[in-house]
Amino acid sequence: MNSNLKHLRQIVRIVLFLFLSVPFAAAQFYGDPPDDTHPWAIHDNNRPQPPRVEPGKAPGGAPSDAVILFDGSSESFKKNWTHENSKRKKDWKVQDGALISVGGAGTIKSKAEFADCQLHVEWSAPVKVAGNSQGRGNSGVFLMGQTEVQVLDNYDNPTYPDGFAGSIYGVMPPMANSLNAPGKWQSYDIIFRRPILKDGKVLDDGSVTVLINGVVVQDSTPLEGGGGHRGRSRAKAFPLNGPLKLQDHGNPVRFRNIWYRQLRSRPIEGGTDGKLSPDATKKKRAEIAAKIRKDAATKKGKEKLLRLMESLYYENNAATYAEAVELGEQFVNEVEEKPDGRKGDFMQVNNAVKYLVKHKILPTDHPGIVAMKAVIEENGWNK
Ligand code: MG
What we know:
Elements: H1 3-25, E1 67-70, H2 74-80, E2 81-83, E3 93-95, E4 98-100, E5 108-114, E6 117-124, E7 139-143, E8 147-151, E9 186-193, E10 196-198, E11 201-204, E12 207-212, E13 215-222, E14 242-246, E15 254-262, H3 278-296, H4 301-312, H5 318-337, H6 343-358, H7 367-378
Helix pairs in contact: 3-4, 4-5, 4-6, 5-7
The protein binds magnesium ion.
């Protein structure tokens, strides 16, 4: 490489590094602080980093945190599934890596019970096309054993739309028919949120999102009670957890690669991401502040001061406030005596103070602010 070009690249890298690292390093005292319904500040570096999940090796592959319900083996079927009908005379078959519905064997249910989830299921309708409407390649994926996402060979087979493949059965037809031909594999990616009721009042309708072969066919569709056959469903409380059920509708539908991942809790059920109730916000803010104070106790000087000041925007704790003021005074005096090489540190603290004033955590006329202003002017740091 030409040496000028090399030099230029180096400069670009340094500039990029400065540009990217400065806002990050100074990210506290940066975005709007927590409020009555949001425990976190905007761009809050105290917020936990998202946990690492290794994605599946191929599209549709189980990510590292998935619970695998069927991996193609007989062992996996035996280990993870049980039968709804204990008097059945037949059983589902595992053949060539697929789990096959056998007429008369009845519905199977996962031993694992869960609720809100991302679910992946692949299925294939019989190559030999038989039957019409609801009688062709019918099975079903029952979320929590309650709500059916229909499995049906609708490749070239009209039926009532709220019973179509990918419908929330009896509630909502899919937006599109993106099925492959019978005999080919179809993928269902489902994101499910159960309805939440309290004292008979619906707090959250619950919802289902479905992608068939990568095409969105349900987009956060409200559950309206959960659906069902013939009757209009009414709002009902779902249990806390339930099994996944696969339907025996008398057709030899094949399944493979079944896994799910649990989703984070909604604020309504104790989750602490997003918009919370004022009580939950206050509690979470106090928890965050305590954690920052604990970290501050391991630090000294300017680092400790900044950490204590930071904790104040989550919770205005009187003892912390007094400690920060004392430490702040020490810091200002120290810099006032020996200002050489301290401009960066001082302006950093000054920015934090300005932030706390702007957001009414410190009063505008606080003596510390007046003292800081004087140091800045004496040293010409405001120019
Ligand atoms: Mg069905």
